[in-house]
Amino acid sequence: MQFFFEIVISGVLSGLMYSLVALGFVLIYKASGVFNFAQGAMVYSAALAVVGCIDLGLPMWMAIIASFIFMVIIGICTEKYILGKLVNQPPITLFMATIGLSFFLDGLSPILFGTEIRPINLGIVDEPIQYLMDTTGLGVSKLDLVSSGIILLLVLALALLFQYTKVGRALRAVADDHQAALSLGIPLQNIWAIVWGIAGFVALVAGLLWGSRNGVQYALSLTALKALPVLILGGFTSVPGAVIGGVIIGVSEKLAEIYIPPVLQDAFGGNFGGIEGWFPYIFALLFLLVRPEGLFGEKHIDRV
C-alpha cells in the first residue's frame, strides 16, 4: 500500500508540472481564442534566457528579471506583429501562425543563448524529504514538493487576478464576447498584450521548474505535447481545469506505467515498456468520446 501511495503522490506532483504548461495555453485561448502551439517553445526560450544571463555573470535574481522582460517582449511582439495582423482570420490561420512562431523561437533562442544542456540551480536539492521518510516511509522529493507549492500559488494568484481586479474583469469580458467588450470601451489590443505577457511569465516559471529538474534542453519545447491531454480533460478555458486535468493525467500515467505492462506481458508476451509515453493520449482520446468539451469546458450548441 505504501508503494501505491508513493506512485499516486509522484503522479500528483508530475501532473502539477504538466498543468503549469497547460495554464499558458488556457490563458491565451481564454482571452483570444487562439491555440498557442508555441507555448512549449516559450518555456524552452525562457529557460535558455535564464541560463544565458547567468553565463554572462548575472546573479540568479537578475537573470530571472531579465528573462521575464525578454518573455514579455516576445509576448507583446507576438500579439502586435503576428496575431494582431490576423484579426478575423480563420482559426486554422492563427494556429499555423503559432506553429511558425514555435519554430522561430526554437531557432532564435539557441542562437542567442547557446545550445548546450545546462542545469538551473534553484537551491533546492532533488532528494527525498528525510522527515517524511522517517515518519511515513514515503519518498517525496523536495524539488517536486516546492515546485507544486509554487504552481498552486501561481494558480491562486491568477484566479484572484481574474476574479477581483479590474484587469481581470476586462479579461473575462473579452473572453466572453470580443464585440461586446469593444462596445464597452475595453481596448482589446491592450488586454491581449497583457495576456501574452502573463503567458510569458507562466512560461518562465515552467522553464525554471522543468529546467531545474531535467536541465535546459530542447526537450523542454516538447512539454507542450504533454499538456495537450491535460487540456482535453480540463477544458481549454478553465484555469482550475488545467490543474485538475494535470493531476488526473499525472496519476493515471504513473499508475499505467507500473501496473499495465505486467498485465499485457502476461496476456500477449513481449515488451510493453514505455507505456507512459502514449497512455495519456489514449486516455484523453477515450475521454473525448464521453465529454468532448472537457470537465470544465463550456458546451456549445450551434443552431442550424
Low-confidence stretches: none
Our estimate of the beta-strand percent is under 5%
- Tell me the span between the first and last alpha carbons: 54 Å
Structural class assignment: mainly alpha
Helix content: over 70%
Overall 3D shape: globular
Helix tally equals 12
Radius of gyration: 20 Å
- Assembly state (oligomeric): single chain
Specify the biggest β-sheet: none
Give average pLDDT, whole number: 81
| H/E topology pattern | HHHHHHHHHHHH
DSSP summary, beta strand count: 0
Query: How many structural units, i.e. domains?
Result: 1
Descriptive notes:
The chain is mainly alpha-helical and 304 residues long. The protein has one domain. Helices cover 72% and strands 0% of the residues. Helix 2 packs antiparallel against helix 3, helix 3 packs across helix 9 (188-214) and helix 7 crosses helix 9. The model has no long low-confidence stretch (mean pLDDT 81).
Give the structure's gist in a few sentences.
With 304 residues, the chain is an all-alpha fold. The chain has helices spanning 2-32, 39-55, 60-81, 91-113, 130-135, 142-164, 166-176, 178-183, 188-214, 223-234, 239-268, 279-290.
